[in-house]
Amino acid sequence: MPRRSLLSSGLTAAAALVMVAGGLGAMNSASASDAPAAAVAAPAAVAPAAPPPGQWIPVNPPVQGIPPSPDVPYASHHEFQANCSVNHTAPDDPIVFPGLPGASHDHTFMGNDTTYAGSTLDSLRGGDTTCKVPGDLTAYWMPTMYNGDQEVRPIGEQVIYYKAGVTDFRTVRPFPPGLRYVVGDPGQSEQAFLDATVEGWECGDSFFNSDIPDWCAPGSQLNVRFQAPSCWDGRHLDSPDHKAHMAYPVPVANNHDVCPASHPVAVPMIEFKMAFPVSGDTSRVRLASGEGYSFHYDVFNAWDEPVLARLVQHCINGGLQCDARGFDQYKPERGAALNENYELP
């Protein structure tokens, strides 16, 4: 009997994701120079210790949402890309296990190159980045992948989309500095995983897998695309379970997706599009968090505020399909948000 399961492409996305218990204790002040060495040995795929008690982290001042309009102009896309490379791995999680190095299952980090268990907004702002845009100092991380006991890292720049998750793309606001959240759950069900993915795990001509296939066509890559909630309560940068301050849009009349009243602020919908260089016999491929449907990721926003605001305004609010520079090759007359150095002009 094969160890992997395949679910039909006709599945309808449900509204809920499984929530995890846990939280964020007081963040320890730390400098980028305290970051640990990058490489660590492959750990067993076992559940980490229970997270420490968390707390609500307020934002000051609170942010109000923009009411959506029933009449939305047509735009086939409303997005830009953050192209970021992997820079290190470590058994750290500064959101779920703040200040506790080694307490988590192993994670693969992208973007900010100083991310470690004690990271804070200030320490991230003092770091550097492997993202194409120098102003993107955000820390992104996900469970490390292994082929047997061999660590597998995505090669080169990975695509992290910033999109409109609501129908009225003009209402999307930039993330506030320090917003952090967890997308998905290492203990989620196969269905919950598929509800948040675009096509599940895929490789070659195999799609909609809830778990990692046992075989991928030689020369192909193992891909996953996982979408984050895009509605924020406007009052908290974090919550005890690192999810309650965020929500997915809900459908209303005329097939419009809007933010629920409890989370009225539309923010960019992040979508991870990760490609792992494994093919052929993939029966021993696993995640540090367990099965393929345990895939999840974390975001700790540390963007340069004017740069992020410009990309959101030009690309998402403007209804464009932008690259990392904020340029839509299909609408060149609209120009770019950033200059050739990926900085504000």
Radius of gyration: 19 Å
Number of helices: 3
Count of beta strands: 23
Main pleated-sheet profile: 6 strands, antiparallel
Strand content: 25-35%
Structural class: mainly beta
What does this 3D model show about the protein?
This protein has 345 residues and is mainly beta. It is built from 3 helices and 23 strands. The protein has helices spanning 121-125, 190-196, 305-316; strands at 57-58, 79-84, 86-90, 107-111, 139-143, 145-147, 150-152, 158-163, 180-183, 197-203, 206-209, 215-216, 222-227, 231-232, 236-238, 246-247, 250-251, 257-258, 265-266, 269-276, 280-281, 285-287, 297-300. The protein has a 6-stranded antiparallel beta sheet. Strand 6 (145-147) and strand 7 (150-152) form a beta hairpin. 51% of the residues are buried.
Name the descriptors.
345 residues; mainly beta; six-stranded antiparallel sheet; five-stranded antiparallel sheet; globular; disordered N terminus
Short description:
With 345 residues, the protein is mostly beta strands.
Topology at a glance:
Blueprint: E1 57-58, E2 79-84, E3 86-90, E4 107-111, H1 121-125, E5 139-143, E6 145-147, E7 150-152, E8 158-163, E9 180-183, H2 190-196, E10 197-203, E11 206-209, E12 215-216, E13 222-227, E14 231-232, E15 236-238, E16 246-247, E17 250-251, E18 257-258, E19 265-266, E20 269-276, E21 280-281, E22 285-287, E23 297-300, H3 305-316
Antiparallel strand pairs: 1-15, 2-8, 3-4, 4-5, 5-23, 6-7, 6-22, 8-20, 9-23, 10-11, 10-13, 12-21, 13-20, 14-16, 14-19, 17-18
